[in-house]
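Researcher: Next entry in the queue.
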Amino acid sequence: MAPLLDVSDEVRAEIGEEETQRLLAGENAPGTYDCTSCRTPGDTGQERTSTVLFVGDETAVLAFAHAACIPSQVVPVSEEQLQGAVRSISGDEQPAVPAFQTPLPAPAAAPAAVPSPAAGATPAPAPRQAVLGITCGLIIVEEALRPALVIEPTGPVARVGATGGGDDFLPLLIEQGFMPQLDLEAPPSPLAGWSVLLAMGKLHAVLQPPVGSAPATAWWQAHQPLQVSDGWRAAVSRTNAVYVYAGPAGSIGRQPREDLMRDALAKACARGQLVAATMPLAGT
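Model: Structure for this entry, 284 residues:
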């Protein structure tokens, strides 16, 4: 009996018609698998199954997922992330830090420029590059648990070329479509073109809209994919949407528990220091 496989046009184009027909005939398709989205068992002979192709710079990996979890699609990832996913599948990778404990850093916008010192003066030390800390966890909104990401830079973020000492992090995000979050009990507004990339059950990146015909690029990207909790993954599978909150340096802090994180978000919201957006899940 042929497997119940869904192969999207984009996956078909990447793997070729010959390999597609082999899959649909059951020659190269697994009977059972672990869903690359929810990580629970699946059976290609009993339920609709999506083919998900992870494509790196030099490597591609074909994975399988419940069609009820995600559709068949191509997911672009970095070669390093793809190799890390392969290692995690083979059991060679150590578990990642749980959600809401250690934020992962990533490059942020350039810091404010420092004027050149006067002749004979001691040069001022170069400013440290701000990085984005990110934590993931669950937040109660409208009496339901919602998957959330909380983003806060380690220092002030200035516009490229700025010479002042201000912090433009929130204005820059608002210009990108994030909205001020005035009520933590309300869901953030959707942000078109942005998405959260979850691959092989791990958080990889926050993607921003592509420019022209170019693929989507990472606004934030994990140095190492972050293992999310089973509860977070279960929550996002129900809605396929993630609430992304962001505040300037020092507005939220690194909180060890989800209830403390929500309290910190509520205080930042009351001070007008919080922007947010709802983003769809990209990949798995």
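Model: The CA atoms of residues 96 and 227 lie 5 Å apart.
Researcher: Noted, moving on.
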